[in-house]
Structure formats: C-alpha cells, structure tokens
Amino acid sequence: MPSTAPATKDFPVKQLIILALCRICEPISFTSIFPYIYQMIESFGIAKNQNEIGIYAGMVTSAFAIAEFSTGMLWGRISDRIGRKPVLIIGLVGTLISMLIFGFAKSLSVALIARALGGGLNGNIGVIQTTVAELVREKEHQPRAFAIMPFIWCLGSIIGPALGGLLAEPTRFYPGIFPPGGLLEEYPFLLPNMVSSVVLVFGIANGILFLEETHEVLRQKRDYGREIGEKLVNFFSWKKPEPKRGDNGYTALETEPLLSRHNADYSTNNGQETPDIAPQKKIPSIWRAFTRPVIGLVISYGILAYHTMGFEQLMPVFLSTPVSDEKPHDLLRFTGGLGMTTQSIGFILSMQGVFSMCMQFFVFPPVARHFGVLGLYRFCMFTYATSYIIVPYLDWLPEGNIQKIGVYVVLAIKITYGVLAYPCNAILLTNSAPSLLVLGAINGIASSCASLARAISPTVTGMIYSFGLDINCVGLAWWVNAGVCIIGAVQAISMKQEDFDREPEDLDIMSVIDEEAAAGTAIDGRVPIINVDVPGIGTTGETFDEYGLVRSVVEGEITALSESVPPNGTMASLAKVASRIAENNN
C-alpha cells in the first residue's frame, strides 16, 4: 500500500497523531530515569562522596547525547535511502533495548553502555522533523505542525519523571504489593524501565501498523505493515473494505507503482528475465545539500541547543545552592543561590513543563503566522539573552513567595523564547533544503550538532558555575551563557528571507538527475523499460523507474509512450504519469 501522505493540501491530522504517539514514547523513557539516577549511582557503591555521585550521574546523562551525536548524521542519511519509517522504528527498538539493559544494570559501566546504546541507535530527532516537513508541504500549516512534536516532548517529560519517581524501588515503598525477596528487590530500578518498555512496544506497533512512509520516492513502495493495520481496523470496525480508486475512476492497480519490485518476475519480449530495478532515485551529493543557508541554520541550532541546555543544567543547581549569609552589595557580586528545597524545585520544574505545553500549542502558531518565521526567529535570538542575564538578580528579592514569583517569571520568559525559537529553526531548515530527498541527512547532521552541544554544555557550565562560587560571582556562568546566546544573535543577521522561499517540489525530478542522465545513459545500471518519444532527445536513453518517474532530462512535451506495458501497469496509468511529467516540465 503506497503512502498518500503528501498528496493532500489539507492538514494531515491523522498521520501527525500517529507520529505523536510514536514520539511520546521517547521522552517518557528518556526522562523517567532522572528521579532515581542519584539513588541508582549510590547503589553501585563507587562514589567516595556525594560530589562524585553528581559527576557519575552527569556521565550517565551525557552518554546518550554523545552517542546520539556520533550517529545522528548516519541515521539521517540512512533515512534518505531506506525511508523515514524504518529508521523511526529502529530508533524505538533501540530505546526499548536500552531501557531493559539499564533496568538490569548493577554497575556504572553497564548503565553507561545502556544509555550509549540508546543514543547510538536513535536518530529520531532529525528524522521526525523530516517526517513532519514531508507530511506538511503547505507553508501556512508549518507553524501549527512543527509545534506539535515539541508539545508532545513536553507532555512526555512530565509523565516520565512521575513514572520513574513512583515506580523506583517498589519493594521499599510498596511492600504490600511487591514483597521483598523477589526480582524487584535485586533490581530495584527495573520496574520503571519495564513500564517504559511496554510504552515503547505500543509505540513500535503503532508505527508499524499505521504510520505512513513520507520519503519523496519510497512512499510509493508497498507497506505490508500498513496493510495489516488497515485489515485490523476493518475487522474491528466491522466494515467491509472497498477497492481503492484514483481520481480518474481507475482501480488501485492503476495507481500502484508502475514497476513494483514486489512483483515476482519481469520478462522481456523474448521471454528472458530482466534484473530487478533499483527502487530509488539517485540521491544528491550530501555536500551539495549544505548550502550557505543550511550551514548557517545548523550552526544556529547548535548554539541554541548549547545555551538552552546550559539553562536546564544551571537552574536547579542555582535554586538549590544555599543562601549566602552575605547579601549582594554590588551589581556583579553574588555569593549564593536561593536555597530552595527539593520539593519546591520539583514543583517549579513540573509547572515549567505545563507552561511550555500550553505555549507550544496555543501561542506559537498564531505568532509565527503574524510576524513571519524568520522575523520571529531573529527576535528570539536577539532577546533570548535577557532570560539568562537577570537570573542572578533573583537573589535580591525578599525570600519567600515574592522570590518564587520571580523564579516563575524568569522561567516563563525562558520558556517563551524556547517555544518560539526551536520550531522556527526547524521550519527554516526545512524550507532552505535544496531537495526534499536530502532533508533527512540535513536534519540528521543538525540533530548531531545539537546533541554535541547538549553533551558539552552541562560540563562547561558546571565548571564555570563552580569557579564562580569560588570567586563570589554566582552570576558568571549565567552571563557566559548569555554571551553564547549573543553570538547566535549575531549569526542570525546573515539570514535572508529569499533563502527560505523555496516551494516544495512534488516530483523533485530535476534535483536528482546527474550528468550521466543528461547524456542519455542508464542510471545505476538501469536499462530503458518504457520508451518515450521526446523532441530533440529521442527514445534510446529514456528510462522510467518503478515509480513511473522519468530518469533523464526531458526537454519538451512527451508525445508518445510505447505499447510495451509492465506487468502490473495499464495504459491509463502510463498516460497519467506522462501527463504529470509533461506538466512538471512546462
């Protein structure tokens, strides 16, 4: 069953919901370890003091990001060759394996391997952005569509910590339900990982059965998973499936790929078998995909990831740092934090997630439509630093409710900028790609760059914060973070609107034709299957691939098709293909 995802200009609600159900599994799994990571490291018995526990916990957290950085570009490129859907499923399976190993970990080395395995097998950040871009081709729908996945991440990041906090060490906290002496006492952190694994199994099944392939070419391939999913839906809804028809009234046979590789055999006129035909267009060189706008946005994405991750690392530490006996006496000297309790910090951070969800879904789409994506992105880059500069001055506020209100205001400012900036970057990156066929590789490299920034940022900001405490300048780390943000703002000046006005190409033929095709030779060893009479070109070098797309430069209208029809094709479908190609080249 070929996908029809990009064929409609309507907002693809159904497919985005299915994609969201796959996506939410990962933040639940990723964030579920945070409530018990301290206790887990402590149970390994390797830390000599509490300070070392924090270091080891940081290593476990960073292992995922470092591994994700090392493979992000690879998974993006693979998704350009085998499709988005298989890579998404592989990522979910990798996360599932990682969670189970992590639950059984009884040493730091096993925990590190588990997290690194999860990051290395997971390239879904970039691939999901690519999938959304291919599902939603209309620019007026992009702000709404690109706000959905961050919203889902926020939702999962609220569920995950609650899951981990409630289910860790069950024999200790729920002895009536989980009696001591069993598997869960030997592996006290297994239960939250098992529950996360069940959630992941649901996500994998949902993806296999219902998610459409969105790749520009591979969406035409038959999808056995979706066929099974449709049969299940028809069975449980008690509906008799109806044969699919195209717009012209012909049956589904006529709208299937012309030379499907799933057919058993192909034969020539003399009865000899012909070799299988490769299913993909020739993908453009990865280096040609990285134009000046693309490179600029990838760098901007890395800078954005660095300073936002720095905030996430610094804020809980600053809130928990004991209050100094000495009140600030000038604008640059701050000797302590806010001294809040763990319960207060947890509540504040959970409210941050709720606020982020609301902003992501209800504020970003109308604001982006009103001000324009590039204009909004520039505004965020130029003013983002204010949310970092003002944090140390919270120490000036009276302790108690007024100080907490100040914290909420700072978090609201930071969340607003993040909610606006990240989807803007994703939309601009999509619209700057020279071809949709390399969008997976571009998003893969962008996510790798962001993963590297997120892996480096906690260590660097933590060291600067510690140094700032030593010299009685707690604000140092915050102001350095603001400086990085300002570098990103300066870099955003070079962005020009005309770099992002490219309309998505339906067939995207011309971007994948190389010099050999222009000379009329076969591509990747393919031989001519259907001869096309084109003025000025002739018929000898023309090749159709299995999707009915012309494989050489076509100048002028197609005037005739040969009567040699592939086994699973019809003259009606060939005429439709000819009409589309001629229309594309006029």
Automatic annotation (TrEMBL):
<feature type="transmembrane region" description="Helical">
    <location>
        <begin position="16"/>
        <end position="38"/>
    </location>
</feature>
<dbReference type="InterPro" id="IPR011701">
    <property type="entry name" value="MFS"/>
</dbReference>
<feature type="transmembrane region" description="Helical">
    <location>
        <begin position="289"/>
        <end position="309"/>
    </location>
</feature>
<keyword id="KW-0472">Membrane</keyword>
<keyword id="KW-0813">Transport</keyword>
<feature type="transmembrane region" description="Helical">
    <location>
        <begin position="476"/>
        <end position="493"/>
    </location>
</feature>
<feature type="transmembrane region" description="Helical">
    <location>
        <begin position="111"/>
        <end position="133"/>
    </location>
</feature>
<dbReference type="InterPro" id="IPR020846">
    <property type="entry name" value="MFS_dom"/>
</dbReference>
<feature type="domain" description="Major facilitator superfamily (MFS) profile">
    <location>
        <begin position="15"/>
        <end position="500"/>
    </location>
</feature>
<feature type="transmembrane region" description="Helical">
    <location>
        <begin position="376"/>
        <end position="393"/>
    </location>
</feature>
<feature type="transmembrane region" description="Helical">
    <location>
        <begin position="87"/>
        <end position="105"/>
    </location>
</feature>
<feature type="transmembrane region" description="Helical">
    <location>
        <begin position="345"/>
        <end position="364"/>
    </location>
</feature>
<dbReference type="InterPro" id="IPR036259">
    <property type="entry name" value="MFS_trans_sf"/>
</dbReference>
<feature type="transmembrane region" description="Helical">
    <location>
        <begin position="405"/>
        <end position="424"/>
    </location>
</feature>
<dbReference type="GO" id="GO:0016020">
    <property type="term" value="C:membrane"/>
</dbReference>
<keyword id="KW-0812">Transmembrane</keyword>
<feature type="transmembrane region" description="Helical">
    <location>
        <begin position="187"/>
        <end position="211"/>
    </location>
</feature>
<dbReference type="Pfam" id="PF07690">
    <property type="entry name" value="MFS_1"/>
</dbReference>
<feature type="transmembrane region" description="Helical">
    <location>
        <begin position="436"/>
        <end position="456"/>
    </location>
</feature>
<keyword id="KW-1133">Transmembrane helix</keyword>
<protein>
    <submittedName>
        <fullName>Major facilitator superfamily domain-containing protein</fullName>
    </submittedName>
</protein>
<dbReference type="GO" id="GO:0022857">
    <property type="term" value="F:transmembrane transporter activity"/>
</dbReference>
<feature type="transmembrane region" description="Helical">
    <location>
        <begin position="53"/>
        <end position="75"/>
    </location>
</feature>
<feature type="transmembrane region" description="Helical">
    <location>
        <begin position="145"/>
        <end position="167"/>
    </location>
</feature>
